[in-house]
Amino acid sequence: MTAEQSLSFLVIGAMMAFFIWDRFRYDLIACSALMLSVAVGIVPFDRAFTGFSDDIVIIVGSALIVSAGVARSGVVDAAIQRFLPDLTSVRAQLALLVVTVTMLSAFIKNIGALAIMIPVAFQFARRSGVQPSVFLMPMAFGSLIGGLMTQVGTSPNVVVSRMRQDLTGESFSMFDFTPVGASLAVVGAVFLLFAYRLVPERKSQQVSVNQAIEITDYTSEAVVANGSPMIGKPLGNLVKLGDGGAVVLAIFRRGTHLAPLPDAIIEADDILLLEGGPAALDRIVSQAKLKISGDRSPTANNGKTPADIEAIEAVIASGSPLIGMSAQRLALFNNHNINLLAVSRQGERLKQRLGSIRLRAGDIVVLQGTRRDLPPFLQEFGCLPLAQREILLGTIRRATVPLLVLAAAMGATAIGVVPVPVAFFAAALAMVIFRVIPLRDVYRAVDGPILVMLAALIPVSDTLRTTGGSDLIAGWLSGIAAGLPPAGALALILIAAMAVTPFLNNAATVLVMAPIAASFAAALGYKPDAFLMAVAIGAGSDFLTPIGHQCNTLVMGPGGYRFSDYPRLGLPLSIVIVLVAVPMLMWVWPLR
Known about the structure:
Blueprint: H1 3-21, H2 26-40, H3 55-73, H4 75-83, H5 90-105, H6 110-128, H7 133-146, H8 155-168, H9 178-195, H10 208-212, E1 218-224, H11 235-240, E2 246-253, E3 256-258, E4 271-276, H12 278-287, E5 290-292, E6 309-316, H13 327-330, H14 332-336, E7 339-344, E8 364-370, H15 374-380, E9 383-385, H16 400-414, H17 420-433, H18 439-445, H19 448-461, H20 463-466, H21 469-481, H22 486-500, H23 506-523, H24 529-539, H25 550-559, H26 565-588
Helix pairs in contact: 1-2, 2-19, 3-6, 3-16, 3-17, 3-19, 3-25, 5-6, 5-7, 5-9, 6-7, 6-25, 7-9, 7-25, 8-23, 8-24, 9-26, 16-17, 21-23, 22-23, 22-24, 22-26, 23-24, 24-26
């Protein structure tokens, strides 16, 4: 072993130990490992920051933006309410998510399948009262095992098919992977449905502010517009859209105040007084196609609706000129270009119409306006803004655009028109251009620490290859496997590919391991097919770390996971994969 190889093993080993210790944040550990690698000379100066331009970083960052756009559009809420209104069991929800992601991943890029379903996982988590972490890691693992079923499901399958062509003159076909891959997918999905409790519930890093500001008694007002799907239906149907997070306090119909009975039939132009949390109110307003605050949009100087409209929560301070005034009396919209969307008053249920509520010190209000108009209004009228969080109430939705953008991106990659990073980057850009997600929220959707960790780790992990460490590991494997029976040798190749792929990317793992597996099979007089398949399965089955595959990385931030959480579920799943894959490979691809 050379000095450079020793240093590579030492740096990577120390880095993994610090990840597992979990005392310092993962991006700081990764950056420290990068600088240490540069300092000891195993990463050249001109290669130190190549990870920031790597395809994986682009794919993960773009997928986070695309997923945020899908979630923001409201199409996920609408689909769940229409097709799965009563699905509240955690295990049933998990089964639907894992099976869907697994099946989609067989035919489209697994990160695309995962990006589609992450917003659904958040909605299910809210509905069943659990953290999203319960769903996200099993979904990520499901996307990995789903990719094992077809040639196009994951990159290792494509690469190993090409290498078989070079070695034997015949490539693997599209569904040569299906018998073994489908068996692994079925067994893996069943395992995940029962073993998901091995992962502790973690609070999502992306929703911690929302959880800290928990205001659930906002009073708002909406009008049943012509074309609303709720016209002619009982009031109880509309309340269900809020999943228990909102109620109707009153119905105002042609000057008459009606009791909000569940069987009251909704009519066009009814004015509904609503109470609930901002998210629940938004779901009711958007899915029922109601008009909030008269559906008046703040305007720019040229009279057009600007793109930078936002809603903000603020507390009315003592001494504010708003105290004792109502929005109607102030003519907020006409005089200040500001909409009052909702009011919350601690310890009191407000039953007046929104515009006639006389404001008091301590009231929390949701105000909508342009980024230019809101700050001076807050300052002039003595309102103290709360910590900023996303308030979607009253925003314009474009439900079909994100789905069309995502479908176009995945279709383009499926037929090979453009590579995955270009397709997903274009999809993320389209989300911004078509205003699915406001420009101000783009960088909030991108998880900076995750991307920095990935970018720093790529040159560090590549030192295994550049120093010859991967060749050294290959030599050790050949020496060990020579004394093993056929099943043991096959299992060793599979386990080695699993162990190496967190540090090389999965395609590089195949490039390193496939020639070793083929030459080893030839030396023992075996056909190479089962060993090549074992390499592809091992390279596509990285369940032990968040860094070996972009799907694992994608859920780390939203799930609030720690580095040490992955092997809790991933190690037993890896053992299951080995126990099922080895006999299946020997049966489907006989060694002699």
